[in-house]
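Regression report. Comparing outputs from two consecutive submissions.

Submission 1:
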Amino acid sequence: MSSFEALEAECLHQFGIAPRKTDCRGSFIKLKWFRGLKDRIVLNDDVHMQMIIQFSWGSACLAHLYRSLCRTTRVDCKEMDGPLTLLVTWAWIRLPFLAPIPSNPRVFPIANR
C-alpha cells in the first residue's frame, strides 16, 4: 500500500471522505483540505456526529499552534495563524506581568481561571 493509499484509507475511516492526490504532498495532507472538511462532512445521523466528537481537538489545536510558532521564526514571515487565544492565555498564566489588570474581573473569566 502506498503512502497515499494509506492516507486515503485512514481518512475514509475517520471522516468518511478521502482527499484527492492534489490535496496531499507526499505523505502529508494539506491543511487547506482539513479547513474545508467541516463544510463537506454531512452530519445527518448519530454515527457521523459521534465521529466528530471523538477527535482530540485540543491536541490538534496545540499541534497547529506549535507549527505556526515555528513558521513565524522565519525571516520572510509576515503574519501568523492558529489558535492565538491559547498562546495569549498561556502567556498570561506564565508571565503575569503581561496580563491586563481588568477593572471588572468578569471581563476575562476563562483566562483568569
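Submission 2:
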Amino acid sequence: MRLSILDQAAISSNQSAAEALKESMKLAQAGENLGYTRFWIAEHHDLPGLACSAPEVMLGYIGANTNTIRLGSGAMLLPHYKPYKVAEVYNMLATLFPDRVDVGIGRAPGGSAEATNALSDNFLQQVWNMPNSVKDLLHFLDNNIPPEHPHAKVTASPVPNVPPMPWLLGTSKKSAILAAENGLAYAFGQFMSDQDGAAIIEQYRNHFKPRKQNDVPQVIVTVTAICAETSEKAEDVALSSLVWVLQRKKGEGQEGVPSIQKANDYLRNEKEDLLREMKNNMIIGNPYQVKKRIEELQEKYNADEIMIVTITHSPVDKIESYKLIAEEILR
C-alpha cells in the first residue's frame, strides 16, 4: 500500500504563521524519511488558522529541503487562475525537482466570498468553464497545443524533461467524471465528504478514457487520521482538531488549533453526540486500529493510495502520528 501526506499548514494557538509553514517543511522531511510517497499542501485564502495561500511557493521551499518525496498541490484552485500560468508554475517546479512534481487541481473557492472576489473576476463563470480550463491546462503541460487553439504559438516555459503529473481532486460524481473523461488521476476527499465515495470512484473507473498510451485509472483517497501509542492518547490528541472544527463552524477559532487542555475546557459545553458524529469521518486510534481502518477503506474504495491529513496542536504529536502509521503499514 502507498501512503501519502496532505498538509493544510494549520497554525496552532502557540504558533506564528511562519512557524507553522516551517513545521510543514519539517513534516515533509519526516514523511520522506518514513517512506511516504508524496507530500501535498492545500491552498486556502483568508481563512484564520491556515497559513498556505500559495502552494507553489511552499513547494519550492519544501523541494529545496527534500530529495525524493513527490511534491504537489492539494489543490491548486483552477477557477482563480489562467491555465497557462498554472502550467508555467508547475513546469518550473518540475524543472527544479525532476520527476517529483504533481499538480492537483480543484474547483473550490478556498475561502470566503470576499476573498474570492478579491482573487478573481467571474469565479462562478470560471467554475462553469472548468472542463475547458482543464483541457487547456493539459495542452500546456503536455506541450501539445492544437494548431487551431488561440494560444497555439505559446509554450509554458521552462519545459521539463518529465512533465508534472496532473490530478483532479474532488468529492462528487461530477469531478470524478471530469477526471475520467480527461484521462486524469483522481483524488477523492473522503475527509470532507458525506457522499458515497465508493460509487463515485466506481464511476470514475468505469468512464476512464486514457489520455496517453498505457494510462490507467489511478485513485487516491484522502482521510483524516490521528494515531498515538494508545487509543486513549489518540483520542486526547484528536480533541484539538475536533474542537477547532467546531469553533470554525461557529465563526470562532481565530487563535488557531487549541491545545488539548483548552479543547477539553471548551468541550464541557458541547454535546457528546455531536462529537461522535464528527469522529465517524475520522480514523483515531493506536497503530493496529488505524492500520485496520485504513486497510478497510482501501478495500472499500479500491484505492491505489491513501493520503492522510492530520491536524494536531503539537507538531511532535503530528509527526509521531505519521511515524506510527508508517511503521505499522509501510515497514
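Expected: both submissions complete independently.
Actual: both completed, but the second showed a warning that disappeared on reload.
Relevant detail on submission 2: Residues 153 and 275 are 56 Å apart (CA to CA).
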